[in-house]
Write a structure and sequence with these properties.
This protein is an alpha/beta fold and about 170 residues long. The chain is about 25% helix and about 30% strand.
């Protein structure tokens, strides 16, 4: 993966727009991988799903808590991506009280599939989801890739450690 350019994808998102007014002041926007990765050195971490135990208890809170530490090490922005739609990702962000890291909804799993990280989790009723991974991307090119061991369809476990903020901070510190 190192040295590979991230896939070109357009993400569909709903964002708040107060100029709309009313009870649902949101509009649809499109955000491309160029918008996210172009000209930036970013950290992206991917996980199986919003509101799931490891993702909500350790991973998202860990990156939110370590935001300043990570960005002080040459990272412009931190993103979490999941095979969930924009509505689920927004509610999860609010539920987690996230203020710093940014959420990317990969509702169709297109980016995840093109990354080669889409796995079947039908054994637990999830369907197609992302295997847990993280990457440092510099101007669209993968600089470093972290992947949890054992990637396969219908895995019996959901390892977490390689993609932890602590492990990534260790890499960034050199």
């Amino acid at each position: 993966m190192i040295g590979r350019t991230v896939p070109t994808v357009t993400f569909k998102k709903r964002v708040r727009d107060e100029s709309i007014g009313g009870d649902n002041p949101f509009k649809w926007i499109e955000e491309t991988t160029q918008d996210i990765f172009g000209g930036n050195r970013v950290l992206v971490f991917s996980l199986p799903g919003a509101f799931t135990p490891t993702c909500s208890t350790f991973q998202v809170p860990g990156f939110e808590e370590n935001y300043e530490n990570i960005t002080s090490l040459g990272i412009d922005e931190i993103y979490v991506i999941s095979v969930n739609d924009t509505f689920v990702m927004r509610k999860w962000m609010l539920d987690q009280d996230v203020k710093k890291i940014k959420f990317i909804p990969d509702g169709n799993g297109e980016f995840t599939r093109l990354m080669g990280m889409l796995v079947d989790k039908s054994n637990i009723g999830f369907g197609p989801r992302s295997w847990r991974y993280a990457m440092v991307v510099d101007n669209g090119v993968i600089e470093k890739f972290f992947e949890e061991p054992g990637r396969c369809d219908n895995a019996d476990d959901d390892p977490y450690g390689e993609t932890s903020p602590e492990n990534i901070i260790k890499y960034l510190k050199g």
